[in-house]
């Protein structure tokens, strides 16, 4: 189920907005952040990515005008990634279409009871993974 659902959502996201799943994750994370910015290290941890992997991805997003990187004012070694106006417009256009896709292929297929059970199972698995201490970072 996960692979099929994820593949369908990724196809829809790419077709509807030209974004990859990681693009969408970065943009939505920044859009929901105060001042539309996050430290690169914080964003990497949130995405369960290495800083190096995220840095390469952010470089590609910068070339497309979706994000910008700045030095961290409080830590000369750190960097902050910010959402550009283009990135804000892109996520505002993509989000409703992505939500519609998630609803069409998952949420609307389930009863409210099934969603409650699924949420309970998800929380149980996430709690177990957090306790195991293996973040699975790549």
Automatic annotation (TrEMBL):
* Any single Pfam family the record assigns to this protein: MarR_2
What protein name is recorded for this chain? MarR family transcriptional regulator
* Residue ranges constituting the HTH marR-type domain according to the UniProt record: 1-127
GO BP of this protein: response to stress
Q: Which InterPro entries does the entry mention?
A: ArsR-like_HTH, HTH_MarR-typ, MarR/SlyA-like, WH-like_DNA-bd_sf, WH_DNA-bd_sf
CDD domains this protein is in? HTH_ARSR (cd00090)
Q: Which GO terms describe its molecular function?
A: DNA-binding transcription factor activity
């Amino acid at each position: 189920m996960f692979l099929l659902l994820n593949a369908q959502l990724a196809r829809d996201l790419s077709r509807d907005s030209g974004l990859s799943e990681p693009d969408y994750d970065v943009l939505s994370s920044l859009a929901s952040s105060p001042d539309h910015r996050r430290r690169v290290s914080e964003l990497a941890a949130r995405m369960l990515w290495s800083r190096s992997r995220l840095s390469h991805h952010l470089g590609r997003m910068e070339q497309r005008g979706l994000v910008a990187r700045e030095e961290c004012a409080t830590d000369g070694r750190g960097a902050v990634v910010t959402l550009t106006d283009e990135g804000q417009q892109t996520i505002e256009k993509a989000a409703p279409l992505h939500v519609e896709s998630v609803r069409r292929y998952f949420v609307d297929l389930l009863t409210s009871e099934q969603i409650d059970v699924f949420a309970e199972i998800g929380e149980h698995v996430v709690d177990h993974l957090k306790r195991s201490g293996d973040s699975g970072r790549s």
